[in-house]
User: Fold these one by one.
Assistant:
Number 1:
Amino acid sequence: MVLESLAGSLRETLRKISRSSFIDRETIKEIAKDVQRALLKADVNVKLVLELSATLEQRANEEKPPAGMTAQDYLVKIVYEELLKILGEDSRLTLKEQTIMLVGLYGQGKTTSAGKLSRFFHRKGLSVGVIAADVHRPGAYDQLEQLAKKLNVPFYGEKGEKNPVKIIKNGLKAHSELKVKIIDTSGRDSLNDDLINEIREIKAAFNPDEVLLVIDATVGQQAGPQAHAINEAVGITGVILTKMDGTGKGGGALSAVSQIHAPVYFIGTGEHPEDLEIFQSKKFLSRLLGLGDLETLLEAFKETNISEEEAEESMNKLMSGKFNLKDMYEIWEKFAQPGLISKMFDSLPLAKMPGGNKIDSNAIETAQEKLRNYRVIMDSMTYFELENPDEINAKRISRISKGSGRTEADIRSLLREFKAMKNNMKAMKGNRGFKKMMRAQIKSGNFGLEDTEALN
Ligand SMILES: Nc1nc2c(ncn2[C@@H]2O[C@H](COP(=O)(O)OP(=O)(O)O)[C@@H](O)[C@H]2O)c(=O)[nH]1
Ligand SMILES: [Mg+2]
């Protein structure tokens, strides 16, 4: 995952909040300092960090949590909201007929991203073609042509032609039947008038629907000035942040770029065409903070016949730390549907804790098999036993074993796992109020679930 170490320290901060018995000025100061340190380590601009921690501290001292929300949860909410401010608002590239122009310096990943975007639109069922308008770099034509061939995407270029406007004009004509046209333009080693004039001229001639800045995240905060200058020149409508794989500076680049108030649409996470992720700041932040990806979870529920109310009820039960085997049985009954379990694991913070075991598909298979076994065992338990798992003694285990045809070891293992699950869920309890707030947001449509489904 991107930004591992930032995630680690922010999660530790949230745990610290949950563990605090009360929230006073001292605690707030400490939390603000923690967030400050974590962000500075992730290369976020000092001025931004200081502003954020000052606002955080002020809000936490002045605001009162609404009825029903603990001071701890409310502080988590403030941390979340302030962090979201530096990531910028959620916005997504729309799936419609459009012309997209990619701009940026040499080596930032424009051509690679042209390929990634083609694949993206193609998979969404939109016909797409690319136009090679990088007239400066030797080999730029061949690079895009090969990529297009590999992806089975129509390519237009004019080898040797030096006028990008002319190429694009012909290219748009050649691709006129296609829904999405992607224009790959020239870069330079550094920002200069030559480059600015060239992209200005293209922008003026064709007025593309999207002008996407492609920028390498490994430059960290330096992404800021570059983004500003290009934005001044051509008006950036969105950003693709590349090379987010293996950089400690992703935080710096993300926060710097968001300052131009153009949404980060995608992040590039590798050299291959499939290494492109839709960037959604809320989702990204929730995952980063280990708050669990409620959006994904609710989407998963939507695909089943479980109603949102039922899903919420189950979640509440799980997180109350009070649930018994019967509740667990009911929840498993609902969740034992293909695909749902894996999505659930993926969206729960537990699976993503730093150092925790990320659950792979094999593990999910095994888990499903185990669930089937457990259900057989639970079918042989009495209601009393399901409601009072602590009362299940050796004598009862022996009876359940005979009734279910499973070994006594199987039954003990079920009881052990139940206990572990209960403890794990208790650990998440601190975020309950926060989750309530997130759910309210989802209900009010702030997360734009419908759009997400269309895009992902
Ligand atoms: N690791 C990684 N490498 C990338 C990514 N995007 C592009 N690259 C690499 O960066 C280099 C420059 O990319 P290119 O698309 O030619 O940049 P351009 O000059 O802006 O067109 C190539 O070696 C790409 O494979 C990314 O998201 N992750
Ligand atoms: Mg290129």
Number 2:
Amino acid sequence: MEIAKVAVVGLGTMGAGIAEVFARAGIGVVAIEADVAALNRGIGLLDASLSRAVSRGRLTAAEQAEIRGRVRPAADFGELAAADLAIEVVPERMEVKRQIFAELDRACRPDAILATNTSSLSVTAIAAASEHPGRVIGMHFFNPAPVMRLVEVVSTVVSGDGVADTVSALARRLGKTPVQVSDRAGFIANALLLPYLNHAVHLLETSYATGPDIDLAATAGVGLPMGPLALLDLIGLDTALSIMEVLHGEFGLPRYAPAPLLRRLADAGRTGRKAGRGIYQYGGSPGGADPHGGNGPDAATPDSVTLIGAGDDLEEDLASAMAAAGITVTANAADPSDLVLVAADAWRPVLPASLAAGRPQDTVGLHLTGKLGAGRLAEIVQTGVSSAAAVAAGTALAGKLGFTTVRAPDRPGFLVAALLYPHLADAVRMVQDGYATAADIDTAMTLGCGYPKGPFELIDAAGAAAVLAGLAAMHEGYGYPEFAPPPLLAEHAAAGITFGAAPRPAR
Ligand SMILES: NC(=O)c1ccc[n+]([C@@H]2O[C@H](COP(=O)([O-])OP(=O)(O)OC[C@H]3O[C@@H](n4cnc5c(N)ncnc54)[C@H](O)[C@@H]3O)[C@@H](O)[C@H]2O)c1
């Protein structure tokens, strides 16, 4: 079926963008809103977006006029008879969605496809409100719709043959990349992203690390475009909480239980950027407010360091970098020095080496996370007996050597892997469950969430065996079921094979 004309119902944040995407692809759009004022507001959003594209030189004035000419505001549902597909983009409330679908049933041709852009409601339950549930499908765009390349095409158990393929072909015409999935809470992208964000809140509320350090671990340590806490503030803590509740309701696992701090902040109206305050504070407050404080005052770089390492390349590189920076380096724990530095491995605690050196209060670990991602990030590992002065000196030293630093407790995975590996395990479990392929998951996370590399590219880069060992250490250390290494990961590690996610289309 060729889709020549579409109807977009609801021209809010997403609907205005979706209408723009269709019109840019040469498809006629009938736009419906709740009332005239909302329609004018929605068309205003569309016009502003097109004008921005013109002012940035991405569109000519003639193209703008042509695109705009394809969008026809409609007074009511009576004008939908010509639409081959109608997409509902109204607020995320089941009763509103069901009412819209009943209207669409009456107004649209019997062969028209009815799509919903819902992020977290059951497409099946929405379809049940239609007289013809076989033609109802999820067509889930990402924000901002004109920019993000992913469309999740969601079939239900009652979807008609060929509907998902027709909608996928349409998504491709729009310049998007579709992934086809069945109707399960969160589909691919939100089901992986939100628990990871929730986990970051959990690390914050348990004082595992500071907010800025958690965000730096994701950006400088993994190469993600934004830290999880800053991203939560952008998404809205209320929205994130309601998606977590849906995921928890569907899967029931502890990993999906909303972090208490997420719920408390949302309850308090600290919903993120839109409220001026969420995890961080926005506007007028210098440096933002981290509920758990910053890293404390800067300390002087130590003049002399005792370096304890495994006698490997890392130890040698560190020693020569310190010497080049004019720092006296000794490998003998008996020699006096300002700081004892243990060149750390993420899966071995620093404390035993620190105790063996005889000055545990003067000792911190330094862990470089190069293998996991793009940045040169150093984790300053604080044992239970490291003094605040030693942590400050270690941080200053790593800064002098050119590293971005975060502070982490002496626990399995320190900070970067403790944040990332459970997320990677979720992705593996999604493949193990037969819900999506590794390639589709990488596509969803790169094109829908802006990851530079998908979870399986990250696993393949680190090695399945390394991720497995890390998760096993976390599982042993904490006993939380969400850290249990998925059997599929163990199989890949044992067989020495990669997930080999197929190459993605160019971004
Ligand atoms: N905002 C996001 O980042 C995002 C991303 C992906 C999917 N979604 C999903 O898209 C949908 C819309 O979200 P949004 O953020 O655009 O919401 P929004 O509140 O910005 O827009 C909803 C629009 O629907 C209109 N509306 C309400 N009742 C209507 C009716 N009876 N008839 C016609 N229009 C009506 C409202 O006037 C409003 O303009 C939700 O299902 C949401 O889960 C949102």
